[in-house]
Write a structure and sequence with these properties.
This protein has a single domain, classed as Up-down Bundle (AhpD-like), CATH 1.20.1290.10. By secondary structure, it is mainly α. It is 65% helix and 0% strand.
């Protein structure tokens, strides 16, 4: 049960967004730009960054939600997403993604944990400055989203099956809806 009185039919961030729609609009606008806007990183790669950061923050709702979205978008589906979320350093992903995930996880730890060496490694692996910028911003935003969901004790469905329908909808329609929720 959430720490505040929210719609019990809505899990995770969805209930919180419905509770305060005036904050939902800018939060979902940020998610839309970071995760679906123009970028040389694929939508799947950006969702994967969010899933890995959320798992590192132990945010069940966000980790499962964004893992399901990444699985919808990436050719390797859930097997690849699970591999990366469990051990991204040894996962079967590009050196560029490993370098960007190093930066994302350092950002998750604390902003000052990102080093010049981390950035240089990412550049050497082919990451652009915009991709590095966006990786840091995605990781920082997910730290905020994770703390928002868990700080208010929002409900998280068990098992990944409950996240797949919403993932399919977000892949098709995006984060911004007339009704400002992420979940159906």
């Amino acid at each position: 049960m959430a720490h505040i009185e929210v719609n019990p039919a809505l899990p995770g961030i969805s209930a919180l967004l419905e509770f305060r729609p005036e904050t939902a609009q800018p939060l979902m606008g940020l998610a839309e730009v970071l995760l679906r806007g123009p970028s040389t990183l694929t939508r799947g790669e950006r969702e994967l960054i969010g899933a890995v950061v959320s798992r590192g923050n132990e945010c069940v709702f966000c980790a499962n939600s964004h893992a399901a979205i990444a699985a919808e978008l990436l050719p390797g589906g859930f097997p690849l997403v699970d591999e990366v979320c469990q051990n991204w350093e040894d996962a079967d992903i590009t050196p560029k993604m490993k370098a960007l995930l190093t930066i994302a996880m350092a950002t998750r730890e604390r902003g000052g944990a990102v080093t010049a060496a981390d950035v240089e490694t990412a550049k050497e692996a082919g990451a652009s400055e915009i991709e590095i910028h966006d990786t840091v911003l995605i990781a920082a935003a997910f730290c905020m989203f994770n703390r928002y969901v868990d700080g208010l004790g929002a409900f998280s469905p068990e098992g990944r099956e409950g996240y797949v329908p919403s993932a399919k909808r977000i892949v098709a329609e995006g984060y911004i809806r007339e009704r400002s929720t992420v979940f159906p």
